[in-house]
Design goal:
The complex is a heterodimer.
Chain A lengths: L1 H5 L3 E7 L1 H11 L3 E4 L3 E3 L2 E3 L5 E6 L2 E8 L3 E7 L3 H10 L6 E3 L1
Antiparallel strand pairs in A: 1-7, 2-5, 2-8, 3-4, 5-6, 6-7
Chain B lengths: L10 E6 L6 H15 L3 E6 L1 H10 L8 E4 H9 L7 E6 L2 H13 L3 E6 L4 H6 L6 E4 L7 H10 L4
Parallel strand pairs in B: 1-2, 1-4, 2-3, 4-5, 5-6
The chains are: A alpha+beta, B alpha/beta.
Chain lengths: ~100, ~160
Amino acid sequence: MGCVEARRCEVLASQVTFAECREYITTNFPEHYEVEPGFHLFDVYIIGVPPVYVGIEGEDVIFPYTKPCHGTFILRAKGAGEEAVRLRALKTDKTKTKKR
Amino acid sequence: MSMPSITGEKVALLVLGCPEVPVQTSIALYLMHILRKKGIRPIVAGTKAARTLLDIADIDRHYLGDLVDLDQCIGEIAEKRMDADLCFVFIHKDSGISYAATMSSLLQGKVYALVFGDKAQELSQQITFSVGVITARVTHNPTPLKNKIDALAGEW
């Protein structure tokens, strides 16, 4: 959580349902990958109802982030090139992620 | 904080979100009482507020076992350093469903969604993944939820 907060991620949407989150990412980000719940991104573990999607736009990573008291947020981590590269590299490993 | 590891002992994980609905703490303590009677060790993963309520309510640890941070617990499970034979996810808002789906995906054991609060029916209809669902539209009166837990306890 610290890393996510330290990055000062842009909040694209707040208090969304998991279904709204899924639709937002798949609709707005043509490059998106399906990840399993528990997928490690930055220093957080992504939680959610499958299918869970993470979007990429350039070097930005767009992902759902759930806080138990405040619901699910959709965050944009800017300049997250290393994580974007890792997500793209994992796309062939269907146990981890798959490109949609 | 040291985390519980995978051992031969039967373990149940209780996942608690924000304790804004009063029945949550009461039912968590009651469930731990039932589990202990069956020789199952309870572990609570929750927010700081949820953990503190339980810690103070059971200061002598008659029912409580380990109390762990929710985010840390997800990490331990995702990294396969922790597992549970049973898991009970307490749900009174949408985020709880996300935690239940995650636990269902990651844990080997049986996962139950305990759905309560004003939106219990609406929330339980959103649970389309494979978990046991226990629903009671209660906020202050834990008895209907307790009765449903009693009816299921024979399975554990």
